[in-house]
Amino acid sequence: MAKIVVALGGNAILSKDASANAQIKAVKQTAKVLVNFVKNGDQLIITHGNGPQVGNLLLQQLAADNNENPAMPLDTCGAMTQGAIGYWFQNAMKEALLDNGINKDVVSVVTQTLVDENDPAFQNPSKPIGPFYKAGEVAELKAQHPDWQIVEDAGRGYRRVVPSPKPLAINEYHAIKQIVDAGIIPIVSGGGGIPVVKKGNQLIGTEAVIDKDFSASKIAQLIDADQLIILTSVGGVFYHYGKPNQQELKEVDVDEIQKHLDADEFAKGSMEPKVQAAVDFVRQTGHPAVIGALEDVQEIIRGTEGTTIKKQRVRV
């Protein structure tokens, strides 16, 4: 039985319709795909993003903010979305398992991720959250929210960005490992985990959103996973993406792809963190990582789709 950590983006849960019903429907479709890992005999560990959800929740908080009902801070909003999405996935995965004749427990864990309060990311916000905006809306948004930083996001529109410190450790990983060892499917590190700084015996939340791929890589390392699979909206990793000399990668070693990371060839806040998270996992464990599309899961399991990053040198 292979232990496989699967990282899902927040955009795989929320499309254009931000209602709970629409997101639950999307999660159910995702669960029907993920159950293929269990049918294959693998031990599944699910992580997920929350960028769209936490951004939308912050907007709701700000809209209702007053002295009697003050808006919740970003770390608490992260915890709220982690609980909501975990709840949806818990029920959806259990239903998908039972539909396939599998009686297996599923549990979501509110996960806290330790970060360094001096991480330079706090001075350089880079993590996109919330909805996409058109170029013509940016000036008005900045006037309404002068403390926001808004940037263009991988050609898809403009989004607010917040600090995204690197995860140092996963606070609950001992408990998560016990859950995995018991054969239970955990939903963990939602939205990258709630960013916290340790001060004595206290864990203090910080105003940030951790990249879910880096946290997925960290949890995969800590629980001795056999594979990290990062599912996204594209079928794999490309060199020179969107250009005439575009090249799709099927198999590549870490040293080769590191050269392209160092050359800043991958989109910031999009493919770059996915590739870096995969490389970190492979370097630390020696086990392979895969980046591919959710719709290709069955082919990824068979090894025919997605980009596999390995430690040993392979033909590119």
UniProtKB/TrEMBL annotation:
Gene3D superfamilies: Acetylglutamate kinase-like
Pfam families: AA_kinase
Presence of keyword Repeat: no
Entry keyword set: Arginine metabolism, Kinase, Transferase
Reactions it catalyzes: hydrogencarbonate + NH4(+) + ATP = carbamoyl phosphate + ADP + H2O + H(+)
Pathway(s) the chain acts in: Metabolic intermediate metabolism; carbamoyl phosphate degradation; CO(2) and NH(3) from carbamoyl phosphate: step 1/1
SUPFAM superfamilies xref list: Carbamate kinase-like
Sequence ranges assigned to domain Aspartate/glutamate/uridylate kinase in this UniProt record: 3-291
Domain of life, source organism: Bacteria
An MF annotation (GO) of this entry: carbamate kinase activity
Family: Belongs to the carbamate kinase family.
PANTHER family reported in the protein's UniProt record: CARBAMATE KINASE, CARBAMATE KINASE-RELATED
Protein name: Carbamate kinase
Species for this entry: Lentilactobacillus raoultii
Classification lineage: Bacteria, Bacillati, Bacillota, Bacilli, Lactobacillales
